[in-house]
Design a protein that fits this description.
single chain; alpha/beta; 8 helices; 19% strand; binds zinc ion
C-alpha cells in the first residue's frame, strides 16, 4: 500500500483539491483525475446522439460514428495497424437475420511501444448497437446504446489520448472500436483471424461503464476474473486509490463469452471485460431508453482513470498476465 494519501478530484474540482492532501472523506477515491471529463462527455454524447441512428452495423448511422472515431484517432496522433493504410479494417459478412451481405469496419489505432513494441496490449469496446426498430406504441425508435457501448468506446478514445500524452507505454497499445458485436461478436472475431495471438499479452475490453455498480461507487467488475491473473494484477495496482475491482457477480449470465474479449480469449489471450453496470436490474439494457442522460459521467471518468492506473504495469511491461484458461468448449 502506498503511504501517501491520494486524491480523487471530483469533476470540476480539479483546482480546489490539487494541493489539498488531508481533507478527504474516508473511502473517497483519491487520485487526481487525469482524464479530461469535458472530452469524455463530448465523446459519449456524440456517439449516443440520435444523429448516429443507433449505430447498427451496415447503416449510415454507424458510418457517422466510424468517421468520428477515425477523426479522433487522427487528432490524438495514433498510427495505423500493421499492413492497414487507414484506421479501418473493412470486411464483409453475411447477416443471418436480414439474409444480406453487410460491409463493416473495425476502427483500429496504434500507439507504438518504446522498448517492447512487438508485444501488444489491446484496449477495445464495440461502437455498434441495435439501430432503429419501430415498435407499435413506442414513440422513440432509436436505440442510442449510450451505456452499451458508447460508454466503452468513449473509454477507448479517452485512454488513447491519456496514453499518447503520457508516452511511457513500453508495450504497443492497439486501440480498437469493434463493429458487429451485437450481431454476434463479428468484428472481434474478424480481428482475431488476422493476428498472431501469441504477441497479444492482454486484452482490456470496456462494456457499459456508465452506471453505479451494485458494489457501490468507485468500483467495477471484471468478467472471467478467475481465468487468468489479469484481475489480480489490476487489484494490486489499484491498492490505495480508493477504487476497487471485483470479480463479475453475474456468473449465470455467462458474460465472459458475450462480449468482444471472448474472441481473443478463445485464442488464449488474457482478455477480459470491465463493466460497472448492475445488469440484473438495469432497465435500459437493450432498450430505447439507453440514453446518454441516464448515465453518470463521474462514474465513466473515474472508471476510465481506474482502468488506466490498474493496467499501467501491464502497459509498461512490468507485469505479464497468465494466459487465459477456458474450461468449456465454446
Ligand atoms: Zn455491449
Amino acid at each position: 500500500m502506498k503511504k501517501i494519501t491520494l486524491f480523487i478530484c471530483l469533476l470540476g474540482m480539479l483546482f480546489s483539491c490539487k494541493n489539498n492532501h488531508n481533507k478527504t472523506a474516508k473511502n473517497t477515491v483519491l487520485v487526481a483525475l487525469e482524464i479530461d471529463s469535458t472530452t469524455v462527455k463530448k465523446h459519449l454524447y456524440t456517439l449516443a446522439s440520435d444523429e448516429m441512428e443507433g449505430r447498427e452495423t451496415g447503416t449510415a448511422g454507424i458510418e457517422k460514428a466510424a468517421v468520428y472515431i477515425e477523426n479522433e484517432f487522427k487528432r490524438i496522433g495514433l498510427s495505423t495497424f500493421q499492413e492497414l493504410e487507414t484506421y479501418r479494417q473493412t470486411f464483409s459478412f453475411h447477416n443471418k437475420r436480414t439474409n444480406k451481405e453487410i460491409q463493416a469496419s473495425n476502427i483500429i489505432g496504434v500507439l507504438e511501444g518504446n522498448s517492447k513494441k512487438d508485444e501488444y496490449v489491446i484496449i477495445s469496446a464495440h461502437y455498434d448497437h441495435l439501430g432503429i426498430r419501430k415498435k407499435e406504441g413506442q414513440l422513440d425508435s432509436i436505440y442510442n446504446g449510450a451505456n452499451d457501448d458508447a460508454s466503452g468506446a468513449t473509454g477507448v478514445l479517452a485512454l488513447a489520448e491519456y496514453f499518447k500524452k503520457k508516452g511511457s507505454n513500453e508495450r504497443t497499445i492497439v486501440f480498437v472500436a469493434f463493429t458487429g458485436e451485437e450481431m454476434g461478436l463479428i468484428g472481434s472475431k474478424h480481428f482475431g483471424k488476422g493476428i498472431d495471438a501469441t504477441a497479444f499479452v492482454a486484452g482490456i475490453n470496456l462494456e457499459m461503464i456508465g452506471k453505479i455498480p451494485s458494489f457501490g461507487p468507485n468500483t467495477a467488475w471484471l468478467t472471467g476474473f478467475e481465468r487468468s491473473d489479469f484481475g489480480a494484477i489490476i487489484q494490486r495496482n489499484l491498492e490505495g486509490t480508493g477504487y476497487q475491482l471485483f470479480p463479475d457477480p453475474y456468473k449465470k449470465f455467462n458474460l465472459f463469452f458475450r462480449s468482444d474479449n471472448a474472441s481473443l480469449a478463445r485464442l488464449g489471450v488474457p482478455s477480459h471485460t470491465f463493466s460497472t453496470t448492475p445488469i440484473d436490474v438495469d432497465k435500459d439494457y437493450h432498450k430505447v431508453s439507453d440514453e446518454a442522460e441516464t448515465l453518470n459521467m463521474t462514474v465513466i471518468a473515474q472508471t476510465i482513470q481506474a482502468v488506466a492506473k490498474g493496467t499501467e504495469s501491464i502497459i509498461n511491461g512490468k507485469d505479464t498476465p497468465s494466459r487465459v484458461v477456458l474450461d468449456e468448449k465454446k
